[in-house]
Amino acid sequence: MRRAVPRYLAAGSPIHELSERYLASVHMLQHFLFTLVAAPLLLAGVPEWLWRALLRPPGAMPVARVLTRPLVAFSGFNALLLLTHLPGTVDLALRHHVFHLAVHAALIGSALLMWWPILSPLPELPRLSPPLQMAYLFLQSLLPAVMASFITFSNSVVYDYYATAPRIWGISPLEDQQMAGGVMKLLGTIVLWSYMTVVFFKWYAREEAESKEPHWDEVEAELRQLGLENR
Question: How far apart are CA 87 and CA 159, in angstroms?
Fold first, then answer.
């Protein structure tokens, strides 16, 4: 139940109304919650037996193996992220509820795939090694920054819908757009680098523990030198 809180916060709270009618910044916050908060929590919270049940139908596992490959998952998520934040797509989604719902479903689905190489619960669809996980997350933190920079530093409002939306709290359309770019860049970076930090310290702790384990071949060699080996 707790794992579903970010999704309901984004879609079933005033955040949804503010993003649909007034503010691009809240719209970006909503997408942030879907992709970088709800998706990893959902992936980590669904039990292994349920994932196996979902992948039991014939042909499901081979398709999952392809879609969860790091390059495929990474490329698919970022391509969809770019497509769904183009001015024409955003304006269309905000004017047609069914299309907007489809955009949200696609974002969550692609985000689940993007996070799979980091949080996979199934050994047959394995996670990346810790160094590759860090490299993967580092690259993921860079690509959306390009789009965020375009939104933040544009001299004009790129989304027509928000340019004509009713203004609230004294925020101008251009200020709202700059805040939206900041949400995409800063909050995304914080989450992804936080995961990178956790992966690094877990990896470091495991390597330290393994380095302290006795190497029995070396112990046996020392015992032989001392003449204490069992005969």
Answer: 5
pLDDT in tens, 161-186: 888 888 888 899 999 999 999 888 88
Size of the chain in residues: 231
DSSP 46-87: S-HHHHHHHT-STTHHHHHHHHTSHHHHHHHHHHHHHHHTSH
DSSP states of 111-136 as a string? HHHHHHHHH---TTSPPPPHHHHHHH
Residue-wise pLDDT for 17-67, tens only, equals 888 888 989 999 999 999 999 999 999 899 999 999 999 999 999 999 999
> Cα dist. 202→113, 125, 130, 197 in Å?
23, 21, 9, 9
Gyration radius of the chain over CA positions: 23
User: Could you tell me if 183 and 25 are in contact, meaning their C-beta atoms sit under 8 angstroms apart?
Assistant: yes
Average pLDDT over residues 101-127: 95
